[in-house]
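So, could you explain the following?
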Amino acid sequence: MTSSAQPEPMDFVAAFSDPEAAGRYAEGPRRFVPGYEALHRMTGILLAEHAPPDAKVLVLGAGGGLELQALAEAHPGWSFVGVDPAREMLRQAERTLGPLMDRVTLVEGYIEDAPLGPFDAATCLLTLHFLDAAAREDTVRAIHRRLRPGAPFVAAHGSFPQRDGIRSRWLARYEAFAVASGADPEQATRARAAVEANLPTLDPHQDEAILRGGGFREVEPFFAAFTWRAWVGRA
């Protein structure tokens, strides 16, 4: 993320900075994101198509370390820089990664706080939906500047039709999936309300255009699950 684009009116960074919330983070994505573990596996496969066996990988929005863990276990030759603005989430990442931390450097901050690289690959999972369209493209450009030419980039985040009436239908499905996956119904309702009121979600066509506008080529969608979409592109 960029520091100028922290979401309003709800401060999501503050929400993720609560130690108890950080400790429970692993429960959330699995209940709210269909195919969460499969998304991590697919991300590793797509990056490996163009990243070398000893790739240096930038992970923006490192969260509680689940993505880093999946990629590090699948690709033992890769090293990582994980960036996240929430200190408690980075502490949770350290606990999640354990001995894998010898291949990971964690940075507290936003994309401008990340090393300049150049990196051999990058990911930004479940993060860009916190930013409005302009800040989203700025962030994508900043990622692009840190990549070697031809390096792969995977982005995944909330992205679904935004037309009147249709948007609420997809949000209802988001809530229903969470409940069906074991989330407390009241928690699922609160999560839906927070997304509806605070997240500047875009239509998938707009999101793909932002990736292209940020400098990436060969942008391809590879994952769609209710309110979630993912793309792969090359610098």
Notes: The longest strand covers residues 217-225. DSSP finds ten helices and seven strands in the chain.
